[in-house]
Amino acid sequence: MRSATVIGAGIGGLAAAVGLHRIGWRVAVVEQAAEIGAIGAGITLWPNALRALEALGFGARVRELGKPQESVGMRTSSGRWLSRLDGAEIERQLGRPMLGVHRAQLHQMLLDELPADALHTGVHVTAVGRDGAVPGLDLPPADLVIGADGINSQVRSQHWPDAPRPRHTGFAAWRGICERRERTEIGVSWGMGREFGLVPLVDGRIYWYVAMPAPEGARNPDERAFLREQFASWHSPIPELIDATPPKALLRNDIRHLGGRLKSYVAGNVALLGDAAHAMTPHLGQGGCQALEDAVVLVAACARYDEVTEALAHYDAERRPRTQQIARASYWAGRLGPFLTNPVAVALRDTAARLAPGSAAVKTFMRVSGWTPPPINGLTS
Fold first, then answer.
1. β-bridge mates for residue 147, sequence order
2. Which helix H or strand E contains 84, and what residues bound it?
3. In this predicted structure, what is the pLDDT of residue 40?
4. Going by C-beta distance under 8 Å and a sequence separation of 6 or more, which residues neighbour residue 227?
5. How far is residue 54 CA from its own chain's centroid?
């Protein structure tokens, strides 16, 4: 029986572990958090992410977790519509809907498919051997080591010593979930140098996020009060959503990305996945979606090839060009979109968005989410 040690129990790491388990591998997942989850945050699963989860055997179950979006829109801070797309048309063109999901529920769905003894939580990883050895843990030798430990990856630092370092973008993100029973559609609103996005969840709650300039490491005594002030004049329901969010349910993080491209996602029998390989800005909503794609391609390659080195060569060739292209596109989508501050540039941006035909937006969706997963040989549910 072949084996893998996965460092990091985020969405990508868990998806890879589940996939390998389902093709008959023994897996060990090592996570530094004492409990696994992402309380207070949501995620939009684009059609490519849904295909990835379907390839792993989660098609019906993930649909139960999410709310298909009836429409997708973009507005100015005053509420003027710049563009609006029908959700049914997106689904018709792309073959799948866009789904708003609570991250904690997605984590739990993946966790439920792993053997109880596969998970090792509360472990601070300082080094990982190529045999999967982690100081302080008695793990069996592994044929494959997967670094899925995020933007500050210890695996990357250890096995890719010359890799680019994470870089602060000059912006921060706030995220929250609140109760709101009124019908609300997925959408993003742009102002001068900032954006507000919202995603309805299946249970009637709303996941929302903010991105705007902020010094690295800065914090406010009362983050909700700060956001109330910043967005008081923005259109409804933005002020109401901020007010309805409990302070403890509000998260703040600096927006960082990997400040350069890796020459390979593979070093011997060690592979990087998700943010550890290609941490990107959130402006295309593809961070988690690309991690799921990574997991499927890696599992499919491991099922196809007898030698781990062959499987990893295929994984690197498949994933590196696509993820690095999307990371670049996401960066510029922020710089040339919500983060413009020059009034003339903002006016031109809004006019271009308002005059662009809906077909152009669908083509953009297609370029990002028109991905088809490889078949996974021998996958069992």
1. 7, 272
2. strand 81-86
3. 57
4. 174, 210, 242, 250
5. 17
CA-wise closest residue to 288 among 338, 232, 330, 332: 330
Q: Token pair for residue 356?
A: 């662009």
Both tokens of residue 202?
Answer: 């299946």
Which two tokens mark 184? 């609300």
Homologous superfamily of domain range 3-67+102-167+258-336:
FAD/NAD(P)-binding domain (3.50.50.60)
- Reply yes or no: is the peptide bond before residue 237 cis, omega within 30 of 0: yes
Sheet holding 42-45, edge to edge: 42-45, 99-102, 67-68
CB 318 within 8 Å of CB 328: no
| Count of beta carbons in the 10 Å neighbourhood of residue 127 | 11
Helix 308-335 and helix 287-304, axial crossing angle in degrees, nearest 10: 170
Backbone Cα Rg of the chain: 21
Q: By three-state DSSP, how is residue 43 classified?
A: strand
pLDDT block averages, 10 residues each, the chain of length 381: 96 98 97 75 91 94 80 90 81 82 92 95 93 93 97 97 95 92 80 93 88 96 97 95 92 94 97 98 94 98 97 98 96 92 94 81 77 92 73
Q: Which residues contact 122 (CB under 8 A, 6 or more apart)?
A: 31, 32, 33, 34
